């Protein structure tokens, strides 16, 4: 689906605030309101089809004008696009005005985003595909605003390209998306955009002493991969660091997961999916920043070679780790990944993204990403970015009590901190490897892959928090206007 500028089609989306007289089709809106068919409430959709002249009007309620925000516009656009597609409309127009709370650029971007969300499907393995009919939506803009709005629309198109890449990687089953395949896809997506992609094989990881990561990878016949992605859009400054958990399937290892909780573990590379998608969006939009992303990809499976509980393993940093659960594998891979990013890629700060703990899902459900930091200033930047993105996150604690829980007995550290506060002890473990660098850890176990569709997010991979990472790297705090 493409977005164009103009206002030329017979099918139209009409945005209606509940408490504002509608300029377009005002008399129809009044009649609908009079008959209680459509009131302009937030989320309401009413379609009006005239078969004789091909006129299709889809009214979209926004609720009270004063309260219209980006999220309301995203959802209205999403519903409008779904409705048009259901009516088999191929081309439609929409007149976009400025809303009270938002600048014009932000309103139009949010509306475009919602339209793109409606188009997403992961149907490559379905013999019968459900069709999406809408091919073009043409935006009627306010006089003289084109120049301001067009770059924003292009930016959103690119950003959603990144989000869709992330979703596709996460939705891909593990039988296809092995570590080797993940590395190949990162290369294919990013190299043409000028991102340098270096792939590390098992021997290269051994040479780097990535002992914690390799302990997890030990049990698998699928070869592990390190994926290092370097985007240079800035000057000579040291890069920002992104790290993503890349466990392509998590059985739990010998601390095996029960069947139902194993089923979705192809999504355990959600962090790496997000980081790769973000790199795509960053490169497509040519952000003037340097960013290096690091993924250490492996699956976590059982075999005669697999690591077992009670093992004591090393790490690239040199700290030794007692394995209390082979299912706490993510933090082992991240320990070496963040340490590598800091010591070998010279990043100034690190944001790691990981489907790390069930405890985070218990705490926050599927609605908020859990955020942890050793540097409130960096987290503030991430919070600002998350707001702009419409990707909610919530800070969870990381104080010394949690750090005490992961102190080891036979080794320096243990890889689990017991039953309680599991999201925080996992974060505390990663912090042991960040060498005091500004660091934020995002636990996306609840938000990366969801059980049922919600708003404009599909069931399965959501693409969170690609937009947050993008706006963080972009680093513009003027509110995007
Ligand atoms: N990949 C899981 C976490 C997870 C759970 C992601 C649910 C998505 C949905 C992680 O590797 C894991 O198994 N964590 C354990 C840690 C525990 C053994 C300390 C957990 O959360 O149970
Ligand atoms: Mn696990
Ligand atoms: Zn895992």
TrEMBL record:
It is found in: Cytoplasm. SUPFAM superfamilies: Macro domain-like, Zn-dependent exopeptidases. It comes from the Bacteria. GO terms for molecular function: manganese ion binding; metalloaminopeptidase activity. One of its GO terms (cellular component) is cytoplasm. Its cofactor is Mn(2+). Binds 2 manganese ions per subunit. Mn(2+) 1 binds at residues 250, 327, 329. Keywords: Aminopeptidase, Cytoplasm, Hydrolase, Manganese, Metal-binding, Protease. It catalyses: Release of an N-terminal amino acid, preferentially leucine, but not glutamic or aspartic acids; Release of an N-terminal amino acid, Xaa-|-Yaa-, in which Xaa is preferably Leu, but may be other amino acids including Pro although not Arg or Lys, and Yaa may be Pro. Amino acid amides and methyl esters are also readily hydrolyzed, but rates on arylamides are exceedingly low. GO terms for biological process: proteolysis. It is an enzyme of class 3 (hydrolase). The active site is at 257, 331. Residues 325-332 form the Cytosol aminopeptidase domain. Mn(2+) 2 binds at residues 245, 250, 268, 329. Its EC number is 3.4.11.1, 3.4.11.10. PANTHER family: CYTOSOL AMINOPEPTIDASE (PTHR11963:SF23), LEUCINE AMINOPEPTIDASE-RELATED (PTHR11963). Belongs to the peptidase M17 family. This is Probable cytosol aminopeptidase. The lineage of its organism: Bacteria, Bacillati, Bacillota, Clostridia, Eubacteriales.
